[in-house]
Amino acid sequence: KTGSKVEVIQTKDIMFLQSNGDYVSIYSKDKVYLKEQTMKYFEENLNSKQFVRIHRTYIVNIDFIDSISSYKKSQFIITLKNNYELKASLSGYKILKETLSI
Known about the structure:
Number of helices: 2
Low-confidence stretches: none
Oligomer: single chain
Shape: globular
């Protein structure tokens, strides 16, 4: 909701979601939206075959992933097709690997 206007975001246009205090930032191809909601809500309500919780801070749309690289001992960097870089925890990486069948 922006003022009195409600904007509808197609899930196919969502690149990733980022925890932002009591809000979640929703990154689409064109714009960033702020929603008063929890990451847990989105994790439970978005298609788990399409959206993966890769870190306590991030949920990523797998269609936008360009590459995955090792960062530190148990952390990974997910690079998106538009060059955004997101951190992935070891547990998030394992779920992502399973979802991508790699």
